[in-house]
Amino acid sequence: MDQAISTSPEGIRRLRDEHHALRARDFCDRFQISEAQLVAAYTGQGVTRIKAHPDDIMPRIERLGEVMALTRNASCVHERVGTYGNYKSGPHAAMILQPEIDLRLFPSHWVSAFALEEQTDKGMKRSIQIFDAAGDAVHKIHLRETSNHDAWADVIAELATEDTSDTLEVAPRKPAEAVKSNPDKRELLRSEWRKMTDTHQFLRLTSKLKMNRLGAYRIVGAPFVERMPPEAVDAALQSLAGSGTEIMLFVGNRGCIQIHGGPIETLRAMGPWQNVMDARFNLHLRLDHIHEVYVVNKPTQRGPAVSLEAFDAEGNIILQIFGRATTERDSRPEWETLLSALPRLQTEDAV
Questions:
Q1: pTM for the whole thing?
Q2: CA dist 130 to 34, 136, 142, 260, 288, Å?
Q3: Which residue among 16, 202, 259, 348 is least crowded, i.e. fewest CB within 10 A of its CB?
Q4: Which residues 6+ apart lie within 8 Å of 226 measured at CB?
């Protein structure tokens, strides 16, 4: 179709009216526009442009009370109900540290942001949505019935910019980072891996060796990493559901990582999606996007931190699951027992 028509605000709004039943992301994929461009097209029509930096947004969100935080990538959506607070600013990384809403924020990717008010059959829906340079969603905050709607107008007035344009220029989407590995440094990687005392040292180690996460996993070998079949992730979720085992489940993109801490209760599979449908935590995972899976063991001062990690065919990380750490230890025996019972690759496939 004519790209000039599809990316004009008028063209976007007309197409959206014609295809209103499509989910926003599906609509954008179909017509090759970014989600931020779709939202921007309604500026002045229920949409307000707001400041995008987390230093501006996060301290004010606390006043909205209980909300739903949403962070996603192309293969997984993470939704958590709770309150914002305990914001820790930083030039390269910032944090929200709350019992239910636990976020790691990377401000350089918070490029545009909008406040939305949408009238629906169920009443007014209000949200704040943040996007990166390519117009992909970084993080969204949805108000609920229990939110402090009385504070909304003041919060948005404080965040609003003077920009009333309904057009938005976006940059090309950056491809996934190529896998970086160096088999010649395998023994050095193994030696340095043994010396780790904190999981946060891992990325510094791989950077020093000019590798990245997936590149290191592919070569380091046992006892640090074991490659698993793609179906191991669904098997783990099914074993976790209703077990009471507390986990830390990470889902993110370049601009935000969102973490669920606690057990999971209810699973509902729908087509290629596996879904956690708990009262205050939802996860929507495309099982058919899972290409590589690893059990990873990183030493820490409080014992091993053992994770199950899934990647797509392009090498993007989809999710990570750890046994939930306590002040005494970085893992849980019941989590490691669960991992030991997962399906394994055949020997020839595990190489």
A1: 0.94
A2: 12, 8, 12, 20, 27
A3: 348
A4: 294, 295, 344, 350
**Taking the CB of residue 150, how many other CB atoms lie within 10 A of it?**
10
CA distance 183 to 188: 10
Give dist(CA 37, CA 7) in Å, integer.
7
CA atoms within 13 A on the CB side of 281: 21
DSSP string, 298-342: E--TTS-EEEEEEE-TTS-EEEEEEEPP-SS-SS-HHHHHHHHTS
Contact call for residues 129 and 121 (beta carbons, < 8 A): no
Concatenate the DSSP letters of all residues of 93-108 into one string: -EEEE-SS-EEEE-GG
pLDDT tens string 173-198:
999 999 999 999 999 999 999 999 99
Q: Rounded to an integer, what is the distance from CA 113 to the centroid of its chain?
A: 17
CB 41 within 8 A of CB 166: yes
Helix and strand numbers, DSSP H then E, in the chain: 11, 18
CA distance 125 to 65: 15
> How many Å apart are CA 137 and CA 253, to the nearest integer?
9
Q: Show Cβ contacts of residue 144 under 8 Å, excluding neighbours closer than 6 positions.
A: 66, 67, 68, 81
Distance CA 58, CA 56 (A): 6
Order the strands of the 102-105 sheet from edge to edge.
87-88, 94-97, 102-105, 256-262, 247-252, 317-323, 305-311, 292-298, 225-228
Q: Which residues pair with 125 in a beta bridge?
A: 118
Q: Are 133 and 161 in contact (CB under 8 A)?
A: no
If one counts every other C-beta atom within 10 angstroms of the C-beta of residue 343, the result is 12
Mark 116-130 as b/e (b = at least 16 C-beta within 10 Å): bbeeeeeeeebbbbb
- Token output for 153: 């107008």
Q: How far apart are the C-alpha atoms of 95 and 78, rounded to whole Å?
A: 17
Q: Give the residue carrying structure tokens 């023994």.
A: 187
- Provide the β-strand partners of residue 114: 49, 129
Query: Cα–Cα distance between 132 and 201 in angstroms, integer?
Result: 27
